[in-house]
Amino acid sequence: MVTKQLYLLLATCIIIQVQGIMFYLEPNAQKCLKEELHAHILVSGEYDVTEVAGQKIDYVVRDSKGHILSQKEDISKGKFTFSTENFEKFEICFISRVPPHQRGIRQEISLVTKHGAEAKSYEGLGEAANLKPMEVELKKLEDLSDDIVQDFALMRKREEEMRDTNESTNNRVLYFSIFSMCCLLGLATWQVLYLRRFFKAKKLIE
Predict the structure, then answer these.
(1) Is there a contact between 71 and 60 (Cβ–Cβ < 8 Å)?
(2) Which residues 6+ apart lie within 8 Å of 61 measured at CB?
(3) Non-local CB neighbours of 35 within 8 Å, separated by 6+ positions
(4) Is 202 a domain residue?
(5) Which three-class secondary structure state does DSSP give residue 78?
(6) Residues 2-38: tens digit of each pLDDT
(7) Spatial CA neighbour of 107 closest among 33, 27, 21, 32
(8) Which partner from 73, 108, 170, 202 sits 20 to 30 angstroms from 20, CA to CA?
(9) Cβ-contact 117, 147 below 8 angstroms
(10) β-strand 30-37 against 18-25: which pairing, if any?
């Protein structure tokens, strides 16, 4: 029973690692997809574009600093791979190009991205290292478990950062509230003293 639950958990994680999307790209338009990834993660993608005579579509993969990680012009069907160096946000952009004399029509684009253990080619690894199919599967599960551990470590780090931010915000709100109360008390005291002197000057009170 425990073994079945473990396989179910791993299968669920494998499904999560694969992301597929289909969308339409208007003529002479650009559409970008963004995602945050860990450092030192292998990412692979497979795209399929419906061909239209005279129209061309390019793709480019950039990081948050504008560095180009992968790029190709006039695509129809193919794959791309790149590795991340730091934890940051990456974007995959598809750009449509239509000649001025031609009336463009929208094109359908399907994209499937994989990262981490799912992006690696274990068939080639098994052949190169002379591994048995079971050993290849164990290697795949080992890499997948490492990805899960990294995900949990990142989630824990983010939780700690959010907790620190909340505590810092609470302290600042507390200090601001104390400062506001002191200002209000000081202003109220000044008003009482001022009114007392004013009434004494007018001889309304002794």
Answers:
(1) yes
(2) 68, 69, 70, 71, 80, 82, 90, 91, 92, 93
(3) 19, 89, 90, 91, 113
(4) no
(5) strand
(6) 344 444 444 444 444 556 789 999 999 999 998 888 7
(7) 27
(8) 73
(9) yes
(10) unpaired
Token reading at 170: 């609470």
Distance (Å, whole) CA 75 – CA 56: 7
Q: How many domains does the chain have?
A: 1
More confident residue, 159 or 138: 159
Looking up residue 40, the CATH number of its domain turns out to be 2.60.120.380
Tell me the β-bridge partners of 200.
none
In a domain, 159, yes or no: no
Q: Report angle CA 61, 64, 66 to the nearest 5 degrees.
A: 60
Question: Among all chains, which residue has been given the structure tokens 């104390």?
Answer: 178
| Alpha carbon distance 184, 97 (integer Å) | 64
- Token pair for 53: 């005579």
Is 122 domain-assigned? no
In a domain, 121, yes or no: no
Range of the domain at 50: 18-116
Both tokens of residue 73? 């012009």
Q: How would residue 178 be classed by pLDDT, with cut points 50, 70 and 90? A: very high
* Amino acid making up residue 200: K
